[in-house]
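Sample 3 of the quickstart, ligand adenosine-5'-diphosphate:
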Amino acid sequence: MVETRLTLARIVSPHSVAVIGASDDVGKFGGRVIHYLIKHGFPGRLVPINPNRASIRGLPAFPSIGAAGQVDVAILAVPVAHLLRQVEECAAAGVGACIVITGKLADAGPEGAALEAQILAVARNAGMRLVGPNCLGIFNMTDRAMLSSSLVLEAAEVKAGGIGMVSQSGALMGTLVSIGLHHGAGFSRCISVGNQADLELCDFLEYLVEDPATRVIALYIEGLKDPARFGPLLRRARAAGKPVLCVKAGRSAAGAQAARSHTASLAGSYAAFAALCRAEGAVLCEDPAVMVQAADALDRLPRLPAPGMGLAVVASSGGSTVTTADMLPAAGLRLAEMGEATRAEMRRWMPESHVHLPLDTGSFDDGTSEAGLAACVRAFLADPDIGAVVVPMTTQPAMAARAALFPGLCREGGRPVLFVMTAAEVGNAARDALRQADFPFYDRVSDALGVLRALEAEAEGRDRAALPPPARPPGIGHPPRLPAGALTEAEAKALAAAYGIPVTRGILARSVEEAILAAEAIGYPVVLKGVSRAVVHKSDLGLVKLNLPNAAALRAAYAALPDIRLEGVLVQEMARGEAELILGARWEPGFGPMVLVGAGGVLVELLRDVQLMPAPLRPEDAAAMLRRLALWPVLDGVRGRPALDVRAAVEALVRLSWLAADLGPRLIEMDLNPLLLRAAGRGAVAVDARATIGGESP
Ligand code: ADP
Ligand code: MG
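Result:
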């Protein structure tokens, strides 16, 4: 391995930049690149390369990179046919890194991929780094190095700030920067990585974690080259106090893979990615535009004091207060329950009948009093249940002056205030006032609520990071010897039992007489199941006979088993429970062991009410997974039903997570479906189990 010529920090902040194919014509790629470098005030040495010109944009031009002297970074936006020769010349000239904007390489098929491999080999042999190809380059707002042809650089000014971004799509990155700039956000460095032939997303993520100018990191990810690097980098970002937000493409494809087990069909790689983000405290967003606004909020607003707090909504129109409050539940947010001190403050300004949230400032005794508004918002920002204040402003007199109150209140209160300018053009004066004050605003209530969800996820991540690492529960025995391939129910249950997970008592029988003896040993009523490794869903084939009260019923059920090759029958105690959960474990290549919990039984794929996390788990993680299920109210006791034994479910899930962690890649997948959950204090029991083991038994 040849030593690399430049660090990433120096690639992003080069002292000298050559533009290959530079031109005076801004209609050409090379013309735009040099135009943007000059326009945005690149402070280093700028070297146009063009064999047909003596000077470009008033700078001396060189016929080839070899004639230009030492250059840190060369930007290439040349036709693909010339690319290899140009990269070779750069390598020979001692260039530190090439930013290759040229596309139609690996992105265009095998021929392009071969060329990309050639270019990479040239670079590697020289110790020259590559960004791209097929990228839009780098914006470095902190050091005013715009190494890009992106049209977002048409903006008169690109504001420097704390958001660092890495994107696998250059065009999307440009759009996100333009959205950020509209809202007054500032950026440190934005890097488009394109095909990632050499430098990849995780390299730049690592750079941003260490970059002093970057306070918040936003990522657009299509696929990670090396997912194993991602989790540890998220941990480092958290240790550095830098929130990481990401959008990952491919959400809708989740679960598309044909699956042998429930767990495989419910826990695709998007789900595994989401679980990893949650476990490491990264904020996964669905909408890239919301991601950049949330990154800005984390950069310029105070953080939420803690997760799970309520919101105050304040507006001067009844319509916007009510419609905003109506949108909260679907966004997973809630209005706060105000404390007595807050109510007392509100009573000073309005009749008792209006002392509630959302607050309509039209109800102030003296009209829409500025003093009253400020006093109430101050009280909100000190209330123990109010994490943030949302201010959806509709058209009203003096919008700009009213908007200008909030930056100061927010700073004083030390909690986020999300100001929404819901009007279009007439709201621009208010927007300008907030840009002047370096304070974020939103154009739509839905954006502000999306941002709040992201802030909530950040606060949850902060909370989780404060917990001690997962601890191995006591009483885990030696796992039984495991054959490779599909286990029978009895084998899978023995594995679960070795980890202390309660399973139904069962006896394997080879004849109806043996089955009757087994039933007598277990005690009626019993369950009879036909055993076959080849069968995935036993009940679909009529292989499960429940609640058999006596020997006669058992004989009849035995006789009614379908005519398929069976390895025997399993006689089981008939268990009872109040709810059915599915517990699953799976090795996700690139991500490691994962566990899942959800609404179980035969309808799991239909309900798709599941939560996934990397293994092993802490009890707190397992409890949080259960609370996020749609089924949670049932577990918690709803409408006079008893609360169920959540502790037993937590215990089983934690133990399964250690099983998954211990077996590692050998555990291809495992389901306990269902785990019957009884009333609080009465425990849980797995009545079915299935597992697929890979590789050799140790
Ligand atoms: P499969 O999932 O392969 O179709 P199961 O063993 O899960 O077969 O049985 C189907 C359903 O029968 C379970 O979802 C559960 O509701 C019920 N069941 C199975 N075994 C028992 C048992 N031992 N006690 C009580 N109910 C059971
Ligand atoms: Mg089952």
